[in-house]
Amino acid sequence: MLSVQNLSKKYGKHLAVDQLNFMLHRGEVVGLLGPNGAGKSTLIKCIVGLLRPSSGEIHINGHARGSRAARQTSAYVSEIPQLYAMLSVWQHLQFITSAYEVEHWEEKAEALLKTFEIWDKKDEFVKTLSKGMRQKLSLCCGVISNAQLVFLDEPMVGLDPKAIKNLKDLIQQLKDEGKTLFISTHLLDPIESICNRVIVLKKGKIIAEGSLEDLRHQLGEEHASLEEVFLEVTADV
Ligand SMILES: Nc1ncnc2c1ncn2[C@@H]1O[C@H](COP(=O)(O)OP(=O)(O)OP(=O)(O)O)[C@@H](O)[C@H]1O
What we know:
The protein is of the alpha/beta class. It has helices spanning 40-48, 68-73, 89-99, 106-115, 131-144, 161-176, 189-192, 212-219, 226-234; strands at 2-11, 14-24, 29-33, 55-60, 63-64, 74-77, 149-153, 180-184, 197-202, 205-210. Strands 6-7-8-3-9-10 form a six-stranded mixed β-sheet, with helices on both faces. A four-stranded antiparallel β-sheet has the order 2-1-4-5. The structure holds adenosine-5'-triphosphate. GO terms for molecular function: ATP binding; ATP hydrolysis activity.
């Protein structure tokens, strides 16, 4: 579903993403982990076409990054909600479904807004929404697109505990539907049981990759939590 080959991204002289190679297979949920500044957002922005890589190749379902086909196949929920001040909550969903050519979306839109408890805000403009509500709308926009590959960059930031639980259920539902998800997050508990695999970045490089079982095995700690594995693989030696 996604192929990343020899991907590097420099900001001036700073190498934020350093020669990355990995694939995501159809139906996989993969967690992208790493300390602050590891390069997670840069990587995702390169994949979705918001940043131009310095070198390397990216293909989404066989289509070159940035192409119309690649864009139609993927949805991106950014770490800071990118919303339109002059559109209401409902108009956002109308706009996204029209861009992705999704038909009969209204029922799903209503269910999503109710799940995230912003149904009563459906006719409100973005400026009247709280930070968490904006994040919820941003997630609804990502999911309503029906894209096969969904990138979530720190999707849990700003959400209340119930919304985190609802998001976790939604991710599980998308996984059951066969969607592929790539989720950057610092909150490891909610994704521990859902992710098939994690990729751990540090200083722009992949320093660990595999299922939680694989990583536990590599560390010789059969009962370690994802958080314990993360702390151990990212520790400075
Ligand atoms: N626009 C930019 N210009 C220059 N350097 C940047 C820019 N954006 C990010 N960087 C640098 O690139 C590196 C990777 O940043 P990035 O935002 O991708 O990390 P991250 O893993 O998403 O971090 P966080 O977990 O804190 O969100 C950091 O060293 C950061 O300072």
